[in-house]
Amino acid sequence: MMKEDIIISEARRFYNYGDWKNSRVFPTAQDLIDELKMELRNHLDDDSKKVYLNELIRLIDIDAQKHLKACKKKDNPLECLEYSLYAKSKYYASQIIESINERHVFFNKQFNADKNLSDETLEAIKELIRGEPYRLFKCSPQESSEVVKRLNTLGILSKEKHVFSVHHRDIKYLKKLIELKSWKSFNDYLNTKEESSQSFNTTYKISNSSGFQVNHAEDRGSINVPITKVQSSSGVSWLNKMFWWISIIGIIIASIIGLYQLFNHK
Q1: pLDDT at 11 over 80
Q2: Which CA distances in Å does 237 have to 134, 232, 242, 245?
Q3: Contact assessment for residue 173 and residue 218, using Cβ atoms and an 8 Å cutoff
Q4: Rounded to whole angstroms, how far apart are CA atoms 187 and 111?
Q5: CB-hemisphere CA count at 13 Å for 91?
Q6: How many CB atoms are closer than 10 A to CB 62?
Q7: Which long-range contacts (CB under 8 A, 24 or more apart) does 33-37 make?
Q8: Which residues lie closer than 8 Å to 189 by C-beta, 6 or more apart?
Q9: DSSP SS3 for 53
Q10: Which residue from 31, 63, 75, 242 has the least number of CB within 10 angstroms?
Q11: Per-residue pLDDT tens over the stretch 75-119
């Protein structure tokens, strides 16, 4: 049995015989989703989770369509508890898939990294430098969006939902990109700069879906971080030890003299 077949059979078992069905007289979508989250822990990689969820959604759709044919409230199905279970369950499962997709970045494999960046893209980078966020929409310019996504995977930009911004400490990288004008030159700069001790791991992952899916953080090259090292010299160490022994000997001698004078006085 193939891995995908096992995952699909697990999804069917959960949907048809899961404990969520017996949680109450008429289960709710929340009952299903609470148990579903625990079930998904059995599948470690995101691709397996998506296979599971897609099969679950398919099963929910089949039952929803069957129910609608005989539903007494088909004109307003959301008033029906059973149809509401199907609709909400499908929505929650779809939300989980969407959250999984957002963890990955889909790069355009047709992107020409050698070509000089367009004035439009350079202007978008300048806006980021000025503190203006970049909002990514489906209709956003292709090249600008691609560069922004790549800057995000490098850790130079931060992302909150579909809005990108830059921390002031990383503005210098955006200025360098404007200076070099091409992504390849910028990436080469990051990889060959020698002053840095900070680097990022690179992981590529090909997705079955359309486009080139990448969990990517390229070698960020060097960042000039001055490091001050304090080294103890052996000479200083011996002087400290000598001072310590002299102090101890001095205390012992002073104690002996004090005792001698005490007994002599008596």
Answers
A1: yes
A2: 57, 7, 9, 13
A3: no
A4: 14
A5: 9
A6: 11
A7: 33/89, 33/92, 33/93, 36/92, 36/93, 36/96, 37/96
A8: 176, 180, 221
A9: helix
A10: 75
A11: 888 789 899 999 999 999 998 988 887 666 666 777 888 899 999
Task: Write out pLDDT tens, residues 115-151.
Answer: 999 999 999 999 999 999 999 887 888 899 889 988 9
Report DSSP state, residue 117.
P
Per mean pLDDT, which range of 110-114, 193-197, 258-262 is the poorest? 193-197
What is the b/e burial string over 236-251, where b = at least 16 CB atoms within 10 angstroms of the residue's CB? eeeeeeeeeeeeeeee
How sure is the predictor about 221, in pLDDT bands with cuts at 50, 70 and 90? Answer: very low
CB of 164 within 8 A of CB of 152? yes
What's the rounded Cα separation, in Å, for the pair 96 and 41?
13
Q: Is 131 left (phi over 0), alpha (psi -120 to 50) or beta?
A: left
pLDDT given at position 158: 87
Least confident of 18-27, 43-52, 104-113, 139-148: 104-113
Among the listed residues 162, 177, 200, the one whose alpha carbon sits nearest the alpha carbon of residue 129: 177
Spatial contact of 105 and 216, defined as CB atoms under 8 Å apart: yes
Average pLDDT over residues 195-217: 39
Q: Is the pLDDT of residue 215 over 60?
A: no
- Determine what percent of the chain falls in helix, strand and coil, rounding each to the nearest 5: 60, 5, 35
Q: How many CB atoms lie within 10 A of CB 161?
A: 8
Backbone angles phi, psi at 213, to 5 degrees: -95, 130
Burial of 189 (0-12, 13-18, 19+ CB in 10 A): middle
